[in-house]
Each structure stands twice: as C-alpha cells, then as structure tokens.
Fold:
Amino acid sequence: MTKYSILSLARNAFSYHENWPEAWRSPEPKPAYEAVIVGGGGHGLATAYYLAKEHGITNVAVLEKGWIGGGNTGRNTTIVRSNYLFDASAHLYEHALKLWEGLSQELNYNVMFSQRGVMNLAHDQHEARELKRRVHANRLNGIDAEWLTREQVLEFCPILNGDPTIRYPVVGATLQRRGGTARHDAVAWGYARAADERGVDIIQNCEVTGFRITNGAVEGVETTRGFIRTGKVGVVAAGHSSVLAAMAGIRLPLESHPLQALVSEPVKPVIDTVVMSNAVHAYVSQSDKGELVIGAGIDPYVSYTQRGGFSVIEETISAIVEMFPIFSRMRMMRQWGGIVDTAPDASAIISKTPVKGLYFNCGWGTGGFKATPGSGHVFAHLVARDEPNALAAPFSLERFSSGALVAEHGAAAVAH
Amino acid sequence: MFVISCPWCGPREQREFSYGGEAHIVRPRNADELTDEAWADYLFMRKNPKGLHYERWVHSHGCRRWFNVARNTATDEILAVYRMGEAPPDLPGQQPPTPCGEPAIGSGNKAIDADGLTGTGR
Ligand SMILES: Cc1cc2nc3c(=O)[nH]c(=O)nc-3n(C[C@H](O)[C@H](O)[C@H](O)COP(=O)(O)OP(=O)(O)OC[C@H]3O[C@@H](n4cnc5c(N)ncnc54)[C@H](O)[C@@H]3O)c2cc1C
Ligand SMILES: [Zn+2]
Structure:
C-alpha cells in the first residue's frame, strides 16, 4: 500500500498521475469469513476497519449491493457536530467528533474535515430557552457550546437577515465551534482503503438476500453472488434495515423516508460556517467548490425511491431565502434524495438481536454521517465481543420495551 | 411527488394530504394483560416494506376524510385506494426482483397520463 504523502504526490506528478495504484482490491467473495458486514456505507466500512484494527479480526467481508458510499454516505450534506441534549447521545456523538479530529492522519486519507462551526438559530423566546438549556447540558458533558446574542450572530454570519420584523426573526443562536463539515466520499474511500490494507475484503455489487439461521444462530448470508458462511453478521444498511431484519423474522421500530438535498451553482466564498434553523426547517453551508449545500426535512411518507417530492424543495428554498435574501437569485444545479431510517425517538439502534451472531446498527435517520467513526468504533466492539460497550449500551433494541428511550427530536430535527 | 385519488374529491397532489402511516394496526383489547414486548410491538414496530404497503392518508387540505391506500414503496406507484374499515386488497407481484434491489423505473404513479388518473382511485 502506497503511503499518501507530499513525496508520493510529487513522484506521481512525473507520470501525469496515471500510475496511482488502486486504493483497494476488488476480490471475489471467499466461501467463509469470520465476520460479514452488510452495507458498504461509511458506518459499515468503519465497522470493518475497527474490527481489524481494534479487535484483530481481519478475516472480514463488507458486502455492498451497489457501490461503496452510494447510499446515504454519498448523499448527505456532511454536517458534523456533537451538541445533543441527553448524556447517552452526547457521549456517543462526542466520541465520534474526537475521532473525526484525528481521522485524516489515522486513515492517511484527507477527509477534508473542516471545523468551521455549526450555528443553530433561535427565532423566538421559547426556542431560545430550549437552545440555552442544550448549551448548558452540552457544557456539563464537556462539549464545547456557546450562546450567541442576536448581535453576535449577525457579526458571526453577516449575510443572515437581521430584520426584526420578519416572520421568523433571529433572536440568538447556539454555536459549536468544533463542528463543521467533511468530504462524504472521502470518508467511505478512506475507511475502505484502510480496511483493505488490514485484510478486509470489500465486495461491491453483492446484495444480501437472506440469512441462514440454524437453532437461533446465524450460519451465513445468502447473496446475489452465492452463499457466504459466517458466524457473525453486522447489518449496517440504513434505509434498507427493516427489509434485512424481516429476512431474519425480526421487526424494527423504523420507517424509511426520502430525505432531499440540493446544491447551487458555485460562487465565491460567502458563508464560512453552517447555519441551521429548526423553525423554518432548513440549513445551509458552502462547499469548498463554492456550491451552497442545502438540506431539507424528510418527505412524510414511507418510500424507497431516493427522490421525494418537489413541494419539500419549494418549502426549503423559501425558508433559505427568508433567512438569506442575498441568495434569492441563485440557481440550483442538482437535487437528490436518500432513504433515511427514522426511529421513534430520533436515536440510533446499535443492538444484538434474538438471533445469535446477528447484530444491527441502524436508525441513524437524518443525522448519522457525523457519527460515522464513532458508530463504526462501538459497533465493531459489539460484533467482536458480543457485548455492547458503555457508549453503545443505551442504544439497544430493548429500550423500546423498557421505555428508556433517548428522545433527541429537539437536537435532531432538521438539524442533521 | 405523486397524485393521490381521494375517494371523495378525486385526483389531487400529494401535498394536499397528510400521511397516517401503516394501516390495519389494531389497538390491543387486552391492554392489562400485555407484556412490555407486546406493547412495544404495537406502539413502535412497523413493517416498513420495500414493495406493497397498506397505509392511511387524510385529505387535510380538502374534505378532511381518512382513507386507505395500497402503494408500492419501491416505485411510489399507487395500486389501490379503499375506504377505512375495508379489508386490504390482495395485490400480488409487487416485490422488487431482489428484496433490496432497485426497480428499473423510479418513482411516480403515471400521474401525467390522464387515463391513469381516472383509473386509480376507487
Ligand atoms: C439528503 C441527506 C442529508 C443528510 N445530511 C446529514 C448531515 O448533514 N449530517 C449527518 O450527520 N447526517 C446526515 N444525513 C444522514 C446520513 O447520511 C446517514 O445517517 C449516514 O450516512 C448513514 O450511513 P450508513 O453507512 O449507515 O448508510 P449508507 O451510506 O446508506 O450505507 C448503507 C449501505 O447498505 C447497502 N445495502 C442496503 N441493503 C443491502 C443489502 N441487502 N446487501 C448489501 N448492501 C446493502 C446500501 O446500498 C448502502 O450503500 C443525511 C442523509 C441524507 C439522505
Ligand atoms: Zn378529499
């Protein structure tokens, strides 16, 4: 494996960058593995990487029905933050944020993590109180959080509409300076390359179509490329989690919805932070290429179509234009949807199942990109040891019968 | 985005309606005997299928009446509209070729086709 460095860059410049080796192999599936990960999104690839790195389990395959990163990993708006309200989520997302801070070095792959700050706007007194409560809760958990007054908000992001007479005036905001964005594809590719280097087989165009279960224990997976024997299966399939669970006779508390995003034509730097608003239901940042990256709320119905309705785009754009009148004449270039697996309490499910050796990591819904490194890290622990660690334990499926829900609607909401 | 044929008002844009989720979930009558697991199943667990789905809609910005819809969630094609209290219609052959596979055509219920419009509905 070539180490990426300034030297390798210079060396390859001499051959016009035509001789870079493949970043990962494309092997044929072996008949058996120690562990199989279903789903080659960021979470699945990170799980495989940490299985190999932290637990010494290298005889692992990641099976992906399409191409790696082609699901929500490659469709999301890349906001990273950890300012969740409750202890369980704050600890989990902060664990992920700490891993983000060293990820490019760890993977020897530039994931372009940019800590440009994430601002959550308040538009009325009630919202301001709720958000201040979150700031205090975050600080008690050791997470950086600040409250900005209206004047400070407008100084931090001058293009925001400061007119106090509009329907949703800005009255203040929270700011997490360590939050920001990352390059979504690079996260998938970086984890794939680093996992492959440690012996993990990444197998694309391989859909899991069933599980072979004997005496309540998993024996392997049926795939479109044949049967693969294994005693440990970690399913990380985002929008398709319920479909896979049904193959094992398990019911999940999930609904799959389209979630849309869009980008504008590229312009010069105009917004150097992330601005989110729950009340008007939209958020925006600017990519390094100069495009505005704008995210919407979910389409209301269950669907697997990866597109969604135009009315959602219209509502999102009207909210953006109210917050930023300066954007009113910008043209939008592309729009798309991903299928997000939403849970009743807006929190993830990282869990064992009634089938021995079968584990699920799902329910990240509209906001799991930020958790990618942490999710993979704790899920690898669960798959390797058959026990969740302290960070993952509150997120088991049992919470739906015990009642110990982790209700994060306030911190999740539109603010992915 | 798709067009839904309200049994009372006819074809209208989906935005006029609100979604009521999975249909035919019956509140357990023996509430005091239920285990926590059975309650969790009733309250939280959902079929969430890729393919044929029976679901409820209400015409919020119209007649405000509830009704049931059978829709293919892999394509968003609406297969049947039927009244509350009616049994779900049997509509075989709506599963994708492989359980998580993507259909050849995307979303849309042929709403542009005027015949298709009158064809759906009751
Ligand atoms: C428009 C949009 C904006 C978002 N914005 C943000 C944001 O700003 N910040 C944030 O934190 N989160 C955001 N999210 C959410 C985030 O994208 C997801 O929570 C996260 O990427 C999930 O990662 P994953 O690896 O679990 O899923 P995915 O990347 O979807 O990976 C799952 C993979 O499983 C594969 N698969 C499915 N079924 C099978 C099968 N049977 N066999 C084999 N493979 C299978 C799929 O093809 C897919 O590649 C957004 C999502 C969307 C759609
Ligand atoms: Zn009506």
